[in-house]
Structures
1.
Amino acid sequence: MDSHDRRKFLKQGAAVTAGMLAAGAGSAMAQEPGEPRPASADGLSLQPPRETSPPGDTSGELPEEFQAFSRTQPSYGGPVGEETYLGKLVPGLRDAGAAPVPFEAPDLDKIPWKMVNGRKEYHIYCEHVRRELLPNHWMDFFGYNGSMPGPTIEAHQGDKVRFVVHNRLPEPTTIHWHGLELPNEMDGVPFVTQDPIMPGKTFIYEFDLHQAGTFFYHAHFPMQEAFGMAGFFIIHPAVAWDPPVDRDFGLMFQNFRIEWAQTVPDSMAMDFNWHTINGRSGPYTTPLVCKLGERVRIRILNFSPQQHHPIHFHGHTFWITGHEGARIPADAWIPRNNELIGVAQASDLEFIAFNPGDWVLHCHMVHHMMNHMVRQVGPRIRKDIDVGAYKASIENRPRVDFVHDDQGFAVPGYPQKMQGMEMSHEAMQKLNSRREVRGMRKMWHMGVHGLMTVVRVLPDDLYDQVMNSDEKMEPGYVFNELVARRKNQRQEQQE
Ligand SMILES: [Cu+2]
């Protein structure tokens, strides 16, 4: 069977499958994420899926028409406008017609659901939450189900949903379903569309999901939003968008002002010193790990109170394939390496992970690449006095001396410092005992602060060693191995 025939065959196969799925659409929808889904009633999402690899082929080789682009090393593809240009429509490793891959937001759970009277029923608890932003730095927030930000709601286009919202806060609240086209009385705006849910009370939201995309839910009391009351609401299409991705990650960016001796955010502040991705600050945000050659989607949501984030990704060019409103038609996708995401906006990035290594993904605002910053107070302009000693005796704190003998201190107040970033042995254990950071360079955490995280692109064997094996791995093993392999490759090419 030549390539053209194979493609046709696969398209026909997909159409048959879609028909079968549509026939089952009336039955109870109790599938787990990742299982085949029935079509939505209007059938809108059933475009014929693109061919990826022949069924059962795990070689990772691209179909002929995509071979202008390499999945395993930097390449341009092209020319401009072609499907292969910068890997734009190059498929990943999953089969055609696949169900959407489950969404994964590192460091965040998903809200479980069960079918009750024909609806997916989720229980949401609005409550005080303590969150460890960095190892041993516990802060107080408002959140959902023990988490700040809240755990993810994952659903599918066509689902009928019910949210039972329990208010365990000391004050009234509501939940707004951001971006959803739903009945007015379900919109969650206090006084305008419903009475506030009083402390100790429960409210039930019910509606049907006809959309698909990256949405979110949040309290509709501004101060509660500033305290962290928000979460992802991911609605998958019935059949994976074309071309299907192998990974579907989510990162929520937030800013808080927390004074140095406080654990509660100042919701009035306009100047922020704690920066979190999925409720943790770099380097505690867990890296995204994927396999070389996969097609990867990262959905980035900016839920900061005031500030926009220019999100930069190293070593790859990505395509903007969706915003918080909906999926963007492929003709309008834009290639970028830095995407500015405004407050309450989301961007979906897609790329082929063709470049092996540990690549940072971060907000490019310098204040957001630091954390827990302090100004001209405290010990950072005082030689030999650490933060602990300063805090221990506020009354006897040393006099501010704006001029030091050292050359580095010649400028008053310079350098500023990330307060409390000295990591204890225990904190280092928490950082480095995570599977996802195995084999990274020994001091990697010194280069990842605030709104920074790492995307690890690993060849199959290294991926297995990092993610699936418990054998001991020295710091730097993966990085060194990749450098050595590139060197060998270059030598082989020269010979
Ligand atoms: Cu930023």
2.
Amino acid sequence: MAGDGGSGSGFCMEIDVRAATIARPHGGPDAQGPVRWDFSTNVNAAGPCPQAVQALARADITRYPDPSYHALRQRLAVWHGVDERRILLAASASEFIQRITAVGERLAPAPVAVPALAYGDYAVAAQACSRAVVGAEDATATLRWCADPGSPLGQDAAPPHDPAATPTVLDAAHAPLRLRGAPCWSSDAEDAVFRLYSPNKALGLPGIRGAYAISPAGAAWPRQTWCDALHAAEPSWPLGAHAVGLLECWTEPATQAWLADARITLRTWTDSLRARLADLGPATCAQRDAVSLRAPAGRDSARSPAPPRLGRAGHHLVWPAGLDARFGAATGGARSAAQRLAAAGHRSPPHLQFRRNAAPMIPNIPELNDATLRSTLQARVDGKIKPLGSLGRLEALAVQIGCILGTSSPRLDQPQLVVFAADHGLAAQGVSAYPSDVT
Ligand SMILES: Cc1ncc(COP(=O)(O)O)c(C=O)c1O
């Protein structure tokens, strides 16, 4: 492994094909439990999606799901506008990656083509099947991986010039979290490849495992043989009841409306993070949806603080020589990164003053005066069907709560009313018509 980056709960890396074994430096929780700031993830930080949470609560976990998942396949097929027989279910995107690599090894044994920087499981799966890993353009490959948006940088990734020529998978795990621009794949190119979807990230629920792929409509290779073999290699009930609930909910208009709104929130966070990074001077924000931070050359490494425990980003922090930390690829870490940078980086760039597992007595209060977020919130309040300003103080309160929560869609999940009361003894002076146990 020549170096690694991060996205999703998985890991990304540049592959050194000579390496004997490939480690899996996943981010997120590890043996020490959840990390305080997980900059390793592309999970939707505006989640979890409330509609999906409700769907999970309704899941019937007392029975096995329908082993053929008839209703779910039908629903996904209608939603994507494809024939139901093209829907392949998977226990997760990672499971599909392993399965198609193993099936491909039997049907067309040869190297696997992986983009230079990519989700690490493609190479891990290839290595598990003793398949060589080659570059994206290598004509000897009989299985090709593409990701659009790319992972972990979120960049547009064009299709190969001959998408139908070789079995190819377009990993669309992060497509629902594309914050800007449009995909550069035509529908013909998409139809020529396997498209892999894993909605748990977009819905902010990566603990629920479950994914699906859409097989190609036509191809220059034996597409049906591949689909039959993929189906045969499926375990019984690849999806549990929760995964079924999640994927069914995924196709609901209310879920997609929530996601569209979440993208607006994420753009606001990402923009404000970029603005703060720009203030830091040495920061470079090279990616479209992701943010990376680079310390200036010649930084005094001897004075560097210990590397923070930041989930997978911790794995690809090059520290202390030449700090090149990706703080929150795309969406997942943007909010926490913005807060973290506001709290620490602003004061003393570029030394970000992380302390390993430090639990501060006073929480970091994020910058609340985010003019963009404030005007987005005000526009939302003004857009409600009511005379402008008619809710008085409540409107200002709604904007303030949104600023505090850092979202254009604030929700108070468990609002609490705190009543302060004391018996100060005044009632004994006869000031009230009633005894104190009444008042
Ligand atoms: C690009 C990409 N593909 C696939 C996956 C794996 O998805 P799943 O959670 O469904 O295994 C990830 C995980 O983060 C990812 O980043």
